[in-house]
Amino acid sequence: MPPSTVRRLCTVLLAVAMLLSTLPVHAATFTPHIEEYAQGWIDWDQGLIYGTGRVPLDDKGSSKIKALHAAELVAAGNIVKLASGIHLDDRQTMERLGNGNFSVKLTAFLRYRDHQRQMVTNVHNPYAEVTLVAPITGVQGLTAQLLRYLHGKPLQWQKFPLPDPQHQRAEQADDPWLVIDARQLPAFAQVKPSLFPKLLTTSGQKVYDVDRVYQSALSSRGMARYVHSTASAQQLILSEASPPRSWWQALSFVSPAWAAVRQQRPRYIVATAQKTSGIARTNLIISTVDANRLRAEDDASEILRQCRVIIVTSAPAGGVEGMRSDQRPLHL
Fewer beta carbons under 10 A from the terminal one: N or C of the chain? Predict the structure, then answer.
């Protein structure tokens, strides 16, 4: 093959590779940020607390029914323990509310349902195992129950979400979501999930806080979903919600369809977290430029007031977080 032909071929292949690297990501893949504990785990993507209880069969006279019931009680108690350690913000945890007396009340605020029940008999000491799950978000979720309780306790908590407006803007299917990319933060400064995280500028100006979101959005969605992602920030920026097209259409530099796709509103507005702040590192610092972009977008689509916020965290070495759920598109 003549050298000139090889050079032309290399040029074409390089152009194709550059184009493919900028193609939109369709249904960008996320996995949940999961905090593992001896008593269970917390899924910060779906907003769920899982508690597991195990009871040896011998302790209950080998009665499977009694052992399962005892394991259920242990699982419920473990959910309370996990919920007690959840951070409300950068200073408060559940167990510190009310001078440490709130943990006793948590049982009344948690709504359990079965996740898994099984008898493990193929071991030396057989046991009953029950895993229960309780929601953090939703009408019956922990956040909504907590806010109702705190409204009557001004000495314990003073900051509350905005009431829903009488004529609220109807959310659209293509409304964008904010993605805060916190993956580049050093290991000693990783963000800690919380119910009421803040976004601040480097000068300390508040961009996002619990008293700047609608109450219904906070209760139903939570202020943020914490996930992992293999997509780069650039791929997330180029994400869009329309169905994927054939590769040969994408490679057509003059394709009107391709031009139309590139003009679509982005699915995600991506901002980079510069560092964490607060005693518990639950708050994130963003640039003033990003803050101004978000305020403008909030005026247009209520992206912040409606809690359409995703925080992408670093997956740990070995991938502990996210192991309990298969990789899947993030359902918005």
Answer: N
